[in-house]
């Protein structure tokens, strides 16, 4: 199972998941990362688990 958003190959820190979403929606990756960390620190949101699941189901970046 894959979602049609690709992980970022140029702007990645860990797996390129957040940067991939930001590139797809034309957002600033730094702001996207800050928002994700804030969301991950809230109770009831399993941030690391969601990140790992997205990393597994997102398409790999093109290696061109």
TrEMBL record:
<dbReference type="InterPro" id="IPR007168">
    <property type="entry name" value="Phageshock_PspC_N"/>
</dbReference>
<protein>
    <recommendedName>
        <fullName>Phage shock protein PspC N-terminal domain-containing protein</fullName>
    </recommendedName>
</protein>
<keyword id="KW-0472">Membrane</keyword>
<dbReference type="GO" id="GO:0005886">
    <property type="term" value="C:plasma membrane"/>
</dbReference>
<keyword id="KW-1003">Cell membrane</keyword>
<feature type="domain" description="Phage shock protein PspC N-terminal">
    <location>
        <begin position="6"/>
        <end position="60"/>
    </location>
</feature>
<feature type="transmembrane region" description="Helical">
    <location>
        <begin position="34"/>
        <end position="58"/>
    </location>
</feature>
<dbReference type="InterPro" id="IPR052027">
    <property type="entry name" value="PspC"/>
</dbReference>
<keyword id="KW-1133">Transmembrane helix</keyword>
<dbReference type="Pfam" id="PF04024">
    <property type="entry name" value="PspC"/>
</dbReference>
<keyword id="KW-0812">Transmembrane</keyword>
